[in-house]
């Protein structure tokens, strides 16, 4: 028996901001879930299972938040699962939910990811003072900045490219009412003159800390037929992992990322991603990761990714728009960031992205990564049901 | 088995928590010696109150005030209180159904011993002298002979002057940490100013620091290999923001350094050269500080830079 086709029929996000002091964590996730149900025209009773994800428990210090959130997400009497893959978790959570529908375990699944960074301490949660070890010298930016320099050296990229990505994503965010950073006065000069935090990474080229949640309703063919709005169809989805550190690890273009993309393209029968994919929502927490992932995901040959960015190909009106929503650079509730990529890809092919809609987007890729570039999750969604 | 190091590891952090409307009313109420519950869709009064109905998932906002007296529904004796528990003398953990409530609240009962505690006993709240809007505003429960209230709890607006909207919840975890056999040997060698890794018997790669196993081959490693002391900067960044609890002046260079003979880079600080003159391929050597377990930083050796092709696989 072939897999059940999976449709995205509901999407809900909170307005992402620096701090939501007005709601509890339960209140935050509830807001996104209710919006997704409204979009799908469904109620709590229509949901068969709930799959949630967030960053490590230490971030907010709530151990096993899925237990405390069962009431808020209408999960009582239903299966509730938690997925846990660091920064990629929003993507893997959506894929676990999609697999439950594809395997006909459940017909309609609510999937949700969140982070309340204002109440968390990501730095503390990730950098414990381990005895006998030298203290970490540099923080998250310091972890990734040397890999950016390695990319620049390997690709021969001019040092101006990072600013172009940050400027583009923050301009796109102005068209997305849910995005955290809305800087109407931003200019390219301001991005370029922002201080270097971890040279070669500028302050303006790093992601913010956000409070937010994102929810989706996934359902089967019969559920899609009842949807009040056009669904997005899942044409392919995959996850891959590799160790954080090993001899021969390529931090600039990890093998697990290449393998994950290849698996998704095989499922979706994509042979030329650059021409066959209309929009990409990729996980870019530091601006230089756009050209790096363009290569890793097969949109450009090795060393050529920055040329697409520099030529404007990834702009909202370019022929491969990347992060029309404004991306992680404009909105980063860590655990939710991956799911926002997946949801924004789905909004594009549903034609429901509003002002940041890519005209006629028929196929879009959602991408997430996490840990020390060790977890990857991606899906490809289309406006039409998958063939067969 | 060689000596394996171990040391205590205490992880402690004060998390902040926004309360939302229902928990805000509940905790502010405690500050005012008022216990609030919420009426669920089936009429049951839940204490402590929750934001969403456990059965229907509907939003719950119908607050009611319950009595400060109640009945113990079950209990467990705690003969040896631990740090930060509500009482520092032996006490009973109790579930108390307050008069007017349909569910029980977890707290502690001040009683002389387990013989003085029974399911069904009547108790009342002993309020803390100083109340701030926290569950600890209830200092504990104490025995109190009385008849259960039969009356319906009255509605409450949940509104108070100067409501508490957030709390701080400290979290503390106590571990004993051991770095294991391979890292213990590595750390001990560092005391002799030697850097010792381990070679994988399968792929022959040399891991520094060693983890006792090869992450790609999944086999144990045992063969010790001394590497360095010199190495090559494979990549780096210039850190311009001062990290908390770290006594290093900015800017400084944080680099990945492939020690000669190692098959992956380790991380370290580069000094002894202006920060803006550090480059990929720079040859460096360790500088040790007296009595320290670790290399303090690396400095240039003065050798010509390594050719990119000789280290590009290690970037
Ligand atoms: Zn090996």
TrEMBL record, chain A:
It comes from the Bacteria. One of its GO terms (molecular function) is acyltransferase activity, transferring groups other than amino-acyl groups. InterPro entries: Thiolase, Thiolase-like, Thiolase_C_2. Gene3D superfamilies: 3.40.47.10. This is Thiolase domain-containing protein. NCBIfam families: PRK08313.1. The lineage of its organism: Bacteria, Bacillati, Actinomycetota, Actinomycetes, Kitasatosporales. Residues 243-372 form the Thiolase C-terminal domain.
TrEMBL record, chain B:
It comes from Streptomyces globisporus. Residues 64-127, 225-288 form the ChsH2 C-terminal OB-fold domain. This is DNA-binding protein. Residues 188-219 form the ChsH2 rubredoxin-like zinc ribbon domain. InterPro entries: ChsH2_C, ChsH2_Znr, NA-bd_OB-fold, Thioester_dehydratase-like. Keywords: DNA-binding. It comes from the Bacteria. SUPFAM superfamilies: Nucleic acid-binding proteins. Coiled coil: none annotated. Pfam families: OB_ChsH2_C, zf-ChsH2. One of its GO terms (molecular function) is DNA binding.
């Amino acid at each position: 028996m072939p897999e059940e086709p999976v449709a995205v029929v509901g999407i809900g996000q909170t307005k992402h901001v620096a701090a939501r002091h007005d709601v509890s964590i339960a209140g935050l996730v509830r807001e996104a879930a209710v919006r997704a149900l409204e979009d799908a025209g469904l109620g709590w009773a229509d949901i068969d299972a709930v799959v949630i994800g967030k960053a490590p428990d230490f971030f907010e210090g709530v151990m096993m938040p899925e237990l405390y959130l069962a009431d808020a997400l209408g999960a009582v009497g239903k299966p509730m699962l938690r997925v846990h893959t660091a920064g990629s978790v929003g993507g893997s959570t959506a894929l676990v939910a999609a697999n439950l529908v594809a395997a006909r375990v459940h017909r309609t699944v609510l999937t949700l990811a969140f982070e309340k960074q204002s109440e968390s301490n990501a730095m503390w949660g990730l950098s414990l003072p381990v005895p006998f070890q030298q203290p970490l010298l540099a923080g998250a930016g310091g972890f990734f900045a040397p890999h950016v320099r390695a990319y620049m050296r390997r690709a021969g990229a001019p040092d101006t490219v990072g600013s172009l990505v940050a400027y583009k994503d923050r301009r796109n965010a102005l068209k997305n009412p849910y995005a955290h950073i809305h800087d109407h006065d931003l200019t390219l000069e301001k991005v370029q003159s922002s201080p270097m935090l971890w040279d070669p990474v500028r302050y303006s080229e790093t992601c913010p800390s956000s409070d937010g949640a994102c929810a989706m309703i996934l359902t089967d063919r019969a559920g899609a037929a009842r949807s009040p709005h056009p669904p997005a169809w899942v044409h392919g989805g995959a996850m891959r992992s590799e160790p954080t550190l090993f001899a021969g690890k390529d931090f600039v273009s990890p093998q697990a990322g290449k393998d994950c993309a290849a698996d998704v393209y095989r499922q979706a029968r994509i042979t030329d991603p650059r021409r066959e994919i209309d929009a990409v929502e990729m996980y870019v927490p530091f601006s230089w990761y756009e050209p790096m992932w363009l290569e890793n995901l097969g949109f450009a040959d090795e060393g050529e990714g920055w040329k697409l960015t520099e030529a404007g190909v990834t702009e909202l009106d370019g022929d491969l728009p990347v992060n029309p929503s404004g991306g992680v650079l404009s909105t980063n509730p860590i655990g939710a960031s991956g799911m926002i990529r997946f949801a924004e890809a789905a909004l594009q092919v549903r034609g429901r992205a509003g002002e940041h809609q890519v005209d006629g987007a028929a196929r879009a890729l959602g991408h997430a990564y996490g840990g020390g570039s060790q977890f990857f999750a991606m899906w490809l969604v289309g406006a039409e049901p998958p063939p067969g | 088995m060689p000596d394996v190091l171990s040391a205590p590891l205490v992880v402690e952090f004060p998390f902040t928590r926004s309360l939302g409307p229902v928990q805000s009313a509940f905790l502010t109420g405690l500050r005012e010696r008022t216990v609030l519950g919420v009426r669920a869709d089936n009429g049951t009064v839940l204490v402590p109150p929750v934001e969403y109905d456990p059965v229907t998932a509907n939003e719950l906002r119908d607050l009611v005030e319950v009595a400060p007296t109640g009945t113990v529904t079950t209990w467990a004796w705690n003969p040896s209180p631990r740090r930060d528990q509500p009482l520092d003398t032996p006490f009973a953990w109790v579930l108390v159904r307050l008069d007017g409530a349909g569910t029980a609240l977890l707290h502690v009962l001040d009683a002389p011993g387990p013989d003085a505690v029974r399911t069904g006993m009547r108790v009342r709240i002993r309020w803390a002298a100083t109340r701030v809007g926290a569950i600890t505003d209830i200092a504990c429960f104490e025995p109190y002979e009385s008849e259960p209230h039969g009356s319906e709890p009255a509605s409450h607006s949940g509104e108070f002057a100067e409501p508490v909207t957030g709390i701080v919840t400290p979290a503390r975890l106590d571990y004993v940490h051991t770095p294991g056999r391979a890292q213990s040997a590595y750390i001990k060698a560092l005391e002799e100013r030697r850097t010792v890794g381990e070679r994988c018997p399968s792929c022959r790669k040399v891991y520094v620091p060693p983890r006792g196993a090869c992450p790609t081959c999944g086999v144990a490693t045992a063969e010790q290999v001394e590497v360095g002391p010199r190495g090559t900067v494979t990549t780096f960044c210039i850190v311009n923001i001062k990290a908390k609890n770290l006594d290093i002046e900015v800017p400084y260079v944080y680099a990945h350094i492939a020690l000669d003979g190692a098959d992956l880079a380790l991380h370290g600080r580069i000094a002894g050269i202006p920060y803006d003159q550090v480059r990929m391929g720079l040859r460096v050597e360790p500088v040790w500080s007296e009595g320290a377990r670790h290399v303090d930083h690396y400095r240039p050796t003065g050798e010509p830079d390594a050719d990119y092709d000789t280290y590009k696989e290690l970037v």
